């Protein structure tokens, strides 16, 4: 097997994803297979509130999922957004990539596509997420702050898993799966399924991904920007730092909630950077798995 490096975001869901991704890779899977298996394992684990089954729902109490995959070999990409009642949505996104001429399918029509491909409708609410939703719903509040984040009163475990994969000599794939920000407005789509915002991959250079506050990351075209910084000669760490510095300067709001970019070059070097706090990322190099913390770049 070609030398392989895999990256996965956030502590708990990232750990599930990186292990499953490596297992698939070690048993002969392609990078696409490995990333899909990693995200699917995390989506299907009902104990993880991050993505898929048991994730935190929108303001109507419904889980709406977004996912995407991009292959750096030919820039082919597939994504779904605002999908209800289907898991794993990363597998639906991959089917959009491989079995349609389109890049993205949305909402009910994405679900119809999934059903036509043999997926089954599932209730994604669990006893725990129903209880958290009801606690949130019944809290007195003012204005629209209710839509701003998720686990603000719990530890932030991440609502997204973004994964990057590299194989020697120079092939990269990026993918992401998310339930979006918890308590979001129904129909709200974040950066994760958007090519250029939540993921980007180009074998000529490398790949990048994002996680955190999707509106800010999307406005920054964070993943494309980071890949283009690498194209200009920066290392992955320098490119991530440059994107985050630019966000802090032009979008000062982006420091109010963590925004993260991660990147991997087409030679397997990697880096990550965030607008505030410390960001946990899992790294798997030929089966050696470890978690590292990444921080805010010096301004
Ligand atoms: C979104 N970027 O939908 C996602 C959320 C996220 O860790 O990454 N949370 O805005």
Task: Explain how this protein is built.
The chain is an alpha+beta fold. 31% of the residues lie in helices and 26% in strands. It has eight helices and twelve strands. The strands form two sheets. It has an eight-stranded mixed sheet. It has a four-stranded antiparallel sheet with strand order 7-8-9-10. α1 packs across α2 and α7 crosses α8. The radius of gyration is 17 Å and the shape is globular. The termini are far apart. The protein binds N-hydroxy-L-asparagine. N-hydroxy-L-asparagine binds next to β8.
Short overview:
The chain has eight helices and twelve strands. The chain has helices at residues 11-26, 31-44, 89-99, 107-116, 127-137, 214-219, 222-231, 236-250, and strands spanning 4-9, 65-71, 76-83, 104-106, 160-167, 171-178, 199-202, 206-212, 259-265, 270-274, 279-285, 288-294. The strands form two sheets. An eight-stranded mixed sheet has the order 4-3-2-6-5-1-11-12. A four-stranded antiparallel sheet has the order 7-8-9-10.
Summarize the SSE layout with pairings.
Elements: E1 4-9, H1 11-26, H2 31-44, E2 65-71, E3 76-83, H3 89-99, E4 104-106, H4 107-116, H5 127-137, E5 160-167, E6 171-178, E7 199-202, E8 206-212, H6 214-219, H7 222-231, H8 236-250, E9 259-265, E10 270-274, E11 279-285, E12 288-294
Parallel strand pairs: 3-4
Antiparallel strand pairs: 1-5, 1-11, 2-3, 2-6, 5-6, 7-8, 8-9, 9-10, 11-12
Helix pairs in contact: 1-2, 2-3, 7-8
Bound molecules: N-hydroxy-L-asparagine.
N-hydroxy-L-asparagine binds next to β8.
């Amino acid at each position: 097997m070609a030398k392989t490096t895999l990256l996965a975001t956030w502590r708990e869901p990232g750990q599930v994803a990186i292990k499953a991704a490596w297992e698939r890779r070690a048993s002969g899977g392609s990078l696409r297979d490995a990333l899909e298996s990693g995200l699917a394992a995390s989506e299907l684990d009902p104990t993880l509130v991050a993505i898929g089954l048991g994730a935190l729902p929108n303001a109507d109490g419904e889980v709406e999922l977004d996912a995407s995959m991009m292959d750096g070999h030919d820039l082919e990409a597939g994504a779904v957004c605002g999908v209800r009642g289907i898991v794993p949505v990363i597998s639906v996104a991959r089917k959009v990539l491989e079995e349609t001429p389109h890049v993205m399918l949305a909402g009910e029509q994405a679900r119809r596509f999934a059903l036509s491909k043999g997926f089954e409708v599932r209730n994604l609410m669990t006893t725990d997420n129903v209880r958290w939703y009801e606690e949130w719903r019944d809290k007195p509040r003012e204005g629209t702050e209710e839509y701003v984040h998720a686990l603000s009163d719990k530890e932030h475990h991440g609502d997204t898993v973004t994964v990057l994969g590299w194989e020697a000599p120079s092939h990269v794939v990026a993918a992401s799966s998310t339930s979006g920000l918890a308590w979001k407005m129904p129909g709200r789509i974040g950066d994760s399924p958007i090519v250029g915002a939540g993921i980007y991959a180009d074998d000529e250079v490398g790949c990048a991904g994002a996680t955190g506050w999707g509106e800010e990351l999307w406005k920054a075209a964070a993943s494309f920007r980071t890949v283009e910084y690498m194209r200009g000669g920066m290392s992955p760490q320098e490119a991530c730092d440059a994107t985050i510095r630019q966000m802090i300067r032009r979008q000062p709001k982006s420091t109010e909630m963590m925004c993260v970019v991660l990147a991997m070059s087409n030679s397997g070097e990697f880096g990550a950077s965030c607008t505030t706090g410390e960001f946990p990322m899992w790294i798997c190099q030929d089966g050696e798995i470890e978690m590292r913390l990444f921080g805010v770049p010096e301004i």
